[in-house]
Q: What sequence folds into this?
């Protein structure tokens, strides 16, 4: 049990780590400090088989702190090798798209029209391939209707469970969307026809608040939705060790507590 | 004696308006920036640029050299959104064909293998299939599975520019950074390849028996070799030197207004490479750059 204080960031790291619990020996990629610390926490606790990188080119024996440097490296992950590996399916990424829709379709390319966007962002990057070759999860730091959009995302970079876009009437082979961790709740795709479903609410958050900040209808795991498990004292100590530069404090404005007062 | 040495200006003079031009490297890593800056000093125009984009794409956009961009991203990593690319996209002044990063090299590979396409699942379920700049067709597996796949078309390049660590005058090149990215495929997909290099050395000094694994491609693919020390700056040529985040910030600031761009161009482009190196602090400053942490 824990009665100790924990931040929202630490709650999120703990929830993100769960994504990789049952993955076995695969490459775990967390984009952004909290998902990355989630991979590190998973590796240091319930899934030591995970392979993680230094964020550049080497697989590191031990998780590399955000903004830190790898100690002993155990392998090379140059980009050609990364694509070869991910096309074999043994990877689970957690990414942070700008928009996500009810199908799990994700966008990091543009807001507005593709030919002349209102806002040009990164481009599709590896999202299209990732989405049809290995499991993917999401971290959404601002749970609101601009992020969880009504209708479809402006440019579908990552395939989702959208029958209108299936080839041959079947979901793309390899499509496997797992969990969504936001600043309010944890969700999965376990509702009817892969409907996004709330599986836990962060301490002090109601389902109605989550629904009101989402552009589409959410399912519930049950009438009583559990609370997102608070980090244990052991997990908090590990997180502090894995993030000595305290990068986690800067992710959410004013570093709010994990349990709303 | 085979001698492919040339100046950057001579290499750029061999490029033509309207060409499809591949640029090697990745975002802020080992971009042939000296050659790109030389394009900015030339009259070359209407290029179709193919790149894992960083400030190479941004500079060419800022200078109005780009008719069409074939890309999966344009980013400067620590500065995620490339501001000149962003300005060009939001003004609608460039056409685009947007790809997935992996599909991108698959399409270069198809060109390298002289095939019309290579099959892939990538793109299925996404808006890559619904854009003006490129049309993807599907192909059905002729085997029992009958799977419908994307036929990713060959991405043929008229010319490619890459930056290397060492070369001899014959075009035997060494690329010694831990990640070679897809420079080999850029070379193989292109009719002509111009390689800038940190240092020209003798064939013997390449020490190919020891360094053979760093040789990406055989010299028959290399058209011209341009000695350009610090020619990847402000991107990195690890292990020789690291990216210059300070300069990348200066460069990013040049997208804030036409005046800021004019000032950057006057100070960093128009005067030639020697003036550029002096303006960014010279060899000692570049050698002292610290390796970034990710």
A:
């Amino acid at each position: 049990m824990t009665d100790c204080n924990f931040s929202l960031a630490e709650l999120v790291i703990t929830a993100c780590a769960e994504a990789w619990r049952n993955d076995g020996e695969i490459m775990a990629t967390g984009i952004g400090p909290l998902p990355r610390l989630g991979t590190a926490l998973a590796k240091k606790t319930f899934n030591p088989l995970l392979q993680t990188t230094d964020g550049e080119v080497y697989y590191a024996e031990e998780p590399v702190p955000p903004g830190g440097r790898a100690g002993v490296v155990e392998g090379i992950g140059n980009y050609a090798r990364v694509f070869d590996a991910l096309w074999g399916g043994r990877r689970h990424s957690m990414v942070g798209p700008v928009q996500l829709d009810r199908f799990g379709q994700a966008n990091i390319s543009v807001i507005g029209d593709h030919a002349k966007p209102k806002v040009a962002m990164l481009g599709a990057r590896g999202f299209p391939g990732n989405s049809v070759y290995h499991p993917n999860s999401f971290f959404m730091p601002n749970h609101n209707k601009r992020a969880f959009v009504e209708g479809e995302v402006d440019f579908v970079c990552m395939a989702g469970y959208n029958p209108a876009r299936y080839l041959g009437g079947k979901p793309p082979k390899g499509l496997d969307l797992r969990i969504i961790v936001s600043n309010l709740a944890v969700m999965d795709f376990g509702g009817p026809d892969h409907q996004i479903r709330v599986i836990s609410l962060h301490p002090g958050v109601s389902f109605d608040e989550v629904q009101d900040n989402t552009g589409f209808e959410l399912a519930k795991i049950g009438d009583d939705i559990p609370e997102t498990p608070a980090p244990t004292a052991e997990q908090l100590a590990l997180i502090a060790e894995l993030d000595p530069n305290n990068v986690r404090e800067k992710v959410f404005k004013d570093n709010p507590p994990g349990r709303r007062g | 004696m085979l001698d492919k040495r040339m100046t950057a200006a001579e290499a750029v003079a061999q490029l033509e308006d309207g060409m499809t031009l591949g640029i090697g490297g990745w975002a802020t890593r080992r971009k042939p920036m000296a050659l790109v800056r030389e394009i900015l000093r030339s009259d070359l125009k209407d290029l179709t640029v193919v790149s894992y984009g960083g400030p190479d794409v941004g500079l060419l956009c800022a200078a109005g050299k780009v008719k069409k961009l074939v890309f999966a991203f344009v980013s400067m990593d620590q500065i995620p959104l490339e501001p000149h690319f962003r300005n060009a996209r939001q003004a609608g002044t460039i056409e685009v064909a947007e790809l997935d990063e992996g599909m991108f090299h698959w399409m270069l590979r198809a060109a390298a293998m002289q095939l019309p396409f290579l099959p892939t699942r990538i793109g299925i379920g996404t808006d890559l299939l619904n854009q003006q700049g490129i049309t993807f067709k599907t192909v059905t597996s002729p085997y029992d599975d009958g799977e419908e796949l994307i036929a990713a078309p060959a991405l043929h390049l008229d010319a490619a520019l890459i930056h290397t660590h060492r070369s001899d005058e014959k075009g035997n090149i060494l690329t010694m950074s831990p990640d070679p990215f897809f420079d080999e495929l850029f070379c193989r997909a292109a009719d002509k390849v111009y390689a800038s290099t940190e240092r020209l050395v003798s064939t013997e000094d390449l020490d190919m028996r020891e360094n053979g694994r760093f040789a990406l491609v055989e010299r028959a693919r290399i058209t011209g070799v341009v000695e350009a020390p610090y020619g990847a700056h402000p991107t990195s040529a690890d292990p020789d030197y690291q990216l210059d985040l300070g300069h990348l910030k200066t460069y990013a600031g040049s997208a804030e207004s036409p005046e800021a761009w004019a000032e950057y161009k006057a100070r960093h482009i128009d005067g030639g490479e020697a003036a550029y190196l002096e303006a960014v602090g010279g060899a000692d400053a570049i050698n002292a750059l610290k390796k970034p942490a990710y």
About this structure: Chain B touches chain A at residues 26, 53, 71-75, 80-81, 85-86, 89-92, 96, 98-103, 105, 120-128, 131-132, 138, 147-148, 178-182, 293-294 (CB under 8 Å). The mean pLDDT of chain B is 97. Residues 81 and 223 of chain B are 33 Å apart (CA to CA). The domain at 8-98+156-245 of chain B is CATH 3.40.1080.10 (Glutaconate Coenzyme A-transferase).
